[in-house]
Amino acid sequence: MKKALVVDWLDKYGGAERVLTSLQNVFQFNETHALVDIMKENDFKKIFPDKYPIKTTLLQKFGRYFRAFFFTFHYFTSKIKVNKDVDLIISSSHAVAKGVKKSSPNQLHISYFQARNFKYIWDEVDLYFGKTAFLLKPLINLLRKIDVRQAQRPDFIISNSKFVQNWVKQTYNRDSVVIYPPVSLEHFSFCDAKEDYYVAIGRVVPYKRFDLVVEAFNQLNKRLIVIGDGDQLSNLKKIAKENIQFTGYLDSAQVNKILSKAKAFIHIGLEDFGIAPIEAQACGTPVIAYKAGGVLETVVNGKTGILFNEQTSASLINAINEFEQTTFNLSEIRNHAFTFCKERFEKEISEFIEGKKNRAN
């Protein structure tokens, strides 16, 4: 059986790319397609250890500026040509990969939704386009219609959380099953000797709301370490007080060292699933998180962390104060994290796809 993988694009190695690593490990794809591949070689090898040519589209020539042409993504996805002798297409979609066309009616297309798709044109229009959003309204409405139409192309959809599953039903009127993504917990070691600092990890981009975390810790004057890089980093450094440290990008060993000793992990963004809170729990580190999105399925309030109701610095401050009055069983927190291990994901997705293949035959 020949298998093809279709992804939106390859740029940085994050949570979605960890899923690709597991998918490649399980299925050993014969061909892979992406709108753009600008991933560094070291990151690329984490997904594809052997030299592996990626078939890209004309957007490749724009390099890291390809996102400026977001309005063409659906079009170029439709132009992707999967070989006719491929039996199974798996699309990994956080934007448009789900819209790939079959090249033969006998092909089975299963799409794994890494997130609410193409948030540029749906939930986060104002966040991405700001004051110009109203000017783009006709274009965005058109893209939404195309997006809904292309979402009907997969034979089956797998969502990475119940949160995304509900969104898929509401937005595309498609049913889906939930298979939680893999978390490589072997890189995160348990530590019960916590030190007196908090940690926040992730890409420093608008929707992660690191600005609110900085605002809160400026008031609290407690020690905070922010791990990650992104376009908001320089601005946050300018407004942060001396109790806040920015490390930039760190490798997994360095992240583990800091995360395992932190007294708590701060998570204020709205995530479709969110791998970082599970990595924190694998270290026995409690999570203080905004009560929305994927963390409702991964953090147990009062047992593995504290959930707060509003995405504001004031609500976060109250949660931190509550956290400091609460006692946690750190071993229990670590055990909870292992319900999201890589082996579980690979087993569940293999069984799901094998079942659909047998039914098709």
TrEMBL record:
Keyword Acyltransferase assigned: no
Any one GO molecular-function label of the UniProt entry: glycosyltransferase activity
Limits of the Glycosyl transferase family domain: 193-326
Entry-linked Pfam families: Glycos_transf_1
Keyword Chloroplast among record annotations: no
SUPFAM superfamilies to which the protein is assigned, alphabetical: UDP-Glycosyltransferase/glycogen phosphorylase
Keywords linked to the UniProt accession: Transferase
Top-level taxon in the UniProt lineage: Bacteria
Name of the featured protein: Glycosyltransferase involved in cell wall bisynthesis
Organism: Paenimyroides ummariense
